[in-house]
Here is the input.
Amino acid sequence: MAFDDFLYHLRQDGLTAPNVSHWQVFPAQAADLRPLPPELSPPLLAALKKSGIQSLYSHQSEAWEAVQRGENIVLATGTASGKTLAYNLPVLSALTENPLARALYLYPTKALAQDQFSGISEQFTVPAAIYDGDTPQAKRKAIREKAQIVLSNPDMLHTGILPHHTLWAEFFRNLRFVVIDELHTYRGVFGSHVANVIRRLKRIAAFYGAKPQFILTSATIGNPAELAGRLVEAPVTLIDRDGSARGEKHFLVYNPPVVDEALGLRKSSVQEAVRLGKELLAADVQSVIFARSRRGVEILLSYLPPSAPTLQPPPNSTNLGEGRGGGGRGGGPIRGYRSGYLPAHRREIEQGLRAGEVRLVVATNALELGIDIGGLGAALLVGYPGSLASTYQQAGRAGRGDAPAVSILLASPAPIDQFLAHHPETLFGRSPERGLINPDHLLILLNHIRCALFELPFGADEGFGGLSAETVQEYLQVLAAGGEAHLAPEKVFWMAEAYPAAGVSLRSASPENVVLQVEDGPSTQLRARLLGEVDRESAPWMVHPKAVYLHEAQQYYVQELDLQRNVATLVPVALDYFTEPLRETSVEVLSVMAEAPQKAWGEIQVTTRVTGFRRKEWASGHILDQEPLDLPPSDLQTTGYWLSIPEETVQALSQAGLWTNAPNDYGPDWPKIRERVRARDGFRCQVCGRPESGPSTAPRTGRQHDVHHKTPFRFFMRRADDPDKARAAANNLANLITLCPECHKKAEANVRVRSGLAGLGYVLASLAPLFLMCDSEDLGLHIEPEAFAVNGLPSLVLYDQVPAGIGFSERLFELHAELLARGLEHVQSCPCEDGCPSCVGPGGENGLGGKAETLALLRQLVG
Here is the structure.
């Protein structure tokens, strides 16, 4: 079946067409071509023509001209638009003219470096080599001395090259270019670290007398020039007008059908991806399915058969049975692709895709970056990838040159997915996401000044990147006070024996990590091995005692967490449940840095205590049981944005019966009623039988049991005409039961009444990553339903989950009005009756979702 026939099928299919919320067609675009630069050397011209390259796209020509003028550039054009040639051409030209000249290519992953190395070595004669953690020791000396292009990654530059720069003296002395590919991946904590690694690189290059020119490439983000300029701390020329040829592209937003209208529940996006994947196989359209996780890849593969039935062609169809991409017909090989696979295995899959032998690949974002896999006919995105940049990258894997292609985003129930399903224009306008970094983050900067001092002494009047010499001296004095530096009259020297770069992870701002140590083997011959690390702040909730920790799809049971030694001891297991931590959080405002009506931004201290954990069934998510924990609290000093509800808004909503955040008023007789119920129930929990006190063999809780309303108190009081009658009905003895604290928590979760403020926090925290280019885990949410200490008003706080903050909360403060407006649009457009996982969150199995309260609150705040 031809590609056009498959599109016809999508439009006519009764299972698919009704659920396509948006069908965007991008028309084909002819190439804007420019002649090859006449000054190219004959060998380079011959290599280009041998590869079939007779001319350049306009953006490639612009890049050439800008680099010839000595400018740093950032290329922000589409996927498969020829960005690689745009930076290779000026670099190879300069290196061909001067055999002593050197270039450093930095890629975010080893796989991408391997792919780009293959392209260079196959097309050109300039000596190039990969230098990363997998490079054999026996080859490293020759690479340092002979390779004109070294392909590496920021981690290897940080730990394996810069600290040993004396071995690279000739390379740095002749360093002409630094190419940084996939700029959009260098954001947040990782990007802030990499900016400091670039500071160290420029400092060492300057020591050897070099001033390299920077060439960067980026996917579509809101601020490529700003991010590039902050990363390299130099003026950067933006080239973003794409002159490449493009075939017609179709982008569909598919929202799985609703299966329960009242609860707003939809059919699984995974099930729908399996169905569409089978149809693509039957149509012989070479395709990729992107899953959000490694586990998602394996689940999808388990549902996909090695062959699929052939689709019926439409009437009067021609060109039947001809697939795209060459190699066999429908029902070809299906492969997975993710981290954890051996490099040779991944290269085999990539080659199979290029040759057309692999017809369907199920992948994580490991295949998102610019690895050459040829031109696929379709890309299925199972859930929003987390950023618009990633969405464009994944969708861009379908189609190459002037061939048509289709990309389908299958929305999950997550609020951000449902927002995009109802507001698809967000996907196709200018990206609102801005890559944020903070190279001067206190903890990150201090660690890299340590590394820089180890590499070279600091002069008395020497700055560090954009930092003044005075600021650098302050940090050096801190190191001297700790015995790590020696302050001489004219220079500062490293004094500690430690090798600082080895102890600094580029993906964490935490100065301390907890080591994960695995014990396996027979009980009489236990062997300990290192599994990895987690930052100190995350350890109590990630690897608390009895937690189930996942690593490379393997389950590990945490036997012990020793926070004195910063070691967690784990054993491999195979269990049918996972664990979920229970946390209590308090927020203290340390300083207010900006303030306006309804909103503020400042420094805060977040104190979190893990009070226990739940065991949940792996397949269904059903809560099996709950267990308390006694762990010390952890403090996080960071930055936060808080939204406060004015008194007049609370009063207006209370009068309308739409404010459920106030504490319950059970009435003056409640203490007596509570005592009667506990006595009636024999002072025992009516679920698990635990007594409040008893003989020495019985468990003791150390406190009185709770009295629980079977039908929640708020159900009676919600919009009650006569509060006294409603209160009496709620407090009827038949509606009350004695429960221990643990069973009470389970019951409350089942009949929870979600307040308007909780619903507001849920939707804002869910939508915030759409504007920040961050993961949902990068933000914390705290709700003060009664009175926030700083202003005495009900408030919610969104804060950076990074010590000292990275800039996310400040950006949310700036986007306050737009965030609220988008939240209102999203909740209004959700078809559920009273809250669901896609809008304000569920209220519990038998609870109330609070959609009406959240809508009323949003309308008041938006005005």
Summary: Residues 307-331, 694-701 have pLDDT under 50 and may be disordered. The chain is about 35% helix and 25% strand.
